[in-house]
Design a protein that fits this description.
Blueprint lengths: L1 E3 L2 E3 L7 H11 L5 E5 L12 E2 L9 E2 L3 E4 L13 E8 L13 E5 L11 E4 L3 E4 L2 E4 L9 E2 L10 E3 L7 H9 L4 E5 L3 E7 L3 E2 L11 E2 L2 H11 L3 E8 L3 H14 L2 E5 L10 H8 L2 E6 L3 E2 L5 E5 L2 E6 L3 H20 L9 E6 L3 E2 L5 E11 L2 E7 L6 H6 L2 E5 L5 E2 L4 E6 L2
Parallel strand pairs: 7-8, 15-18, 15-19, 16-17, 19-23, 21-26, 24-27
Antiparallel strand pairs: 1-2, 3-14, 4-13, 5-12, 6-8, 6-9, 7-11, 10-11, 20-22, 22-23, 24-30, 25-29, 26-27, 26-28, 28-30
Helix pairs in contact: 1-6, 3-6, 4-5
Length: 416
């Protein structure tokens, strides 16, 4: 039994990572949308589909430097018996193409507009100029070396669907269509608290006995910003329930998601779970996840807003936030499914023990030797920040496995 402010509550069973991800999908939805200028919309998620206002390209274009012509005028051409065409004109870039007659051709550059009568382009290296006559040494088929009008995008056709993340490539595509404003989901705002009477601000120069600097606040803030959120830091909460609850309630009203770090292990001075139960319905959803590191993790939904309680140990806190905090932010930001994590295949350098029924996240240092990449496990307690700084990524030991053997090929997820 867990006792909170004199009220007994049945301890919830530890959830699997898959169950937690499923809860996140069920409980949390995207924030409201806003309109942004295109140049400010990078990294955001589209709240509405985007349709093309025009055909792309808007005219038939050449994909090579060569001569625009009617393909039929080259049929049967070979090196021994070239087709003879009359040179008509050069098509200047950015200028409309002139008309051509039967047996005529125009010099065209890559991306240039084709005359309305031309249906193909012969590459310049397959021709030879002799005064006003162009000798063509090979035949071309209709449509060869041509991008047709509307081949890339049809007018009123779908360009990007709702839920699409805007990267540099999408920004460039939309700019080419003259789309200057977009409807995107709002960027999530996170309220962040750290807790524990042993903590002091990381700027503190001289530590008193028993005190430690708060490393979680700056590390988690940076990680949240990398994942597309803004962070409002509320400071270090004292181990006093009424103050804990009062400040948390005020912060929750101002943000889209609340995150605590520290105070999530079961104990007499643990106020995180009690605060989650008081902040709104339905309250506490998860009281422990079967992962290592990060088992003592709490998750609640308080009046529709996610509240995440991270362990105090830095390695655990960052591990849990990267996995589950990132998944929550994906939902709030409007992404329909969780993003893929960049991975690299490597050869495990030593055995990794694991307990069946628990998913282990093992920190990995990568080392390249010749053509192979070695994965060196970094072992250490969850309070040892040095192990994080040394790691290039992590590998996941699934709950049904009882460890991994040296020499196995593993997939290492890279840190952000």
């Amino acid at each position: 039994m867990l006792w909170l402010r004199g009220v007994s509550m049945k301890l919830m069973r530890v959830s699997s990572p898959e169950e937690v991800f499923s809860l996140i999908r069920e409980q949390f939805t995207a924030l409201e949308s806003e309109k942004l200028r295109l140049e400010k919309a990078g990294g955001r998620i589209l709240a509405k589909p985007v349709y093309s206002p025009e055909n792309v390209p808007d005219f038939n274009r050449s994909t090579v430097d060569g001569y625009a012509l009617a393909a039929r005028d080259t049929f049967g051409a070979s090196e021994g018996m070239p087709a003879m065409l009359e040179y008509s004109a050069e098509i200047l870039m950015g200028q409309p193409a002139p008309s051509i007659q039967n047996g005529q051709c125009c010099l065209v550059h890559t991306g240039g507009m084709l005359p309305p009568e031309a249906d193909a382009v012969v590459m310049i290296e397959d021709t030879e100029a002799a005064g006003s006559v162009i000798q063509c040494f090979r035949q071309v088929a209709p449509g060869e070396n041509v991008i047709h009008r509307g081949e890339d995008l049809k007018k009123e056709g779908l360009v990007l669907d709702q839920g699409h993340r805007l990267r540099s490539s999408e920004i460039g595509l939309l700019a080419s269509l003259g789309i200057a404003e977009l409807e995107v989901y709002r960027k999530p705002l996170i309220g962040l608290f750290t807790s524990g009477d042993e903590l002091v601000d990381y700027n503190t120069r001289q530590l008193d006995p028993g005190k430690i600097r708060d490393s979680n606040a700056p590390a988690l803030s940076f990680l949240a910003e990398q994942k597309g959120a803004e962070v409002k830091y509320g400071g270090i909460l004292p181990d006093d329930f009424s103050t804990y609850l009062e400040k948390s309630r005020k912060m929750l009203n101002e943000v889209d998601m609340l995150v605590f770090t520290g105070g999530s292990s079961v104990g007499s001075r643990d106020h995180t779970a009690g605060t989650m139960q008081e902040l709104g319905q339905p309250g506490l959803l998860v009281e422990g996840i079967s992962i290592q590191p990060g088992k003592p993790t709490l998750l609640a939904s308080c009046n529709g807003k996610p509240v995440l309680g991270l362990p105090g140990h830095p390695v655990s806190a960052l591990n849990v936030f990267a996995l589950f905090g990132g998944a929550i932010l994906e939902r709030l930001a409007g992404h329909e499914s969780f993003r893929f994590t960049p991975t690299v295949k490597a050869r495990l350098s030593r055995n990794v023990a694991s307990r069946s029924g628990r998913t282990d996240y093992v920190r990995i240092k990568l080392d390249q030797s010749g053509n192979s990449i070695n994965a060196e496990p970094i072992f250490g307690r969850s309070g040892m920040l040095r192990t994080l700084a040394e790691a290039d990524g992590f590998l996941v030991v699934a709950a049904e496995k009882e460890g991994l053997n040296a020499g196995e090929e593993v997939e290492v997820a890279l840190w952000n």
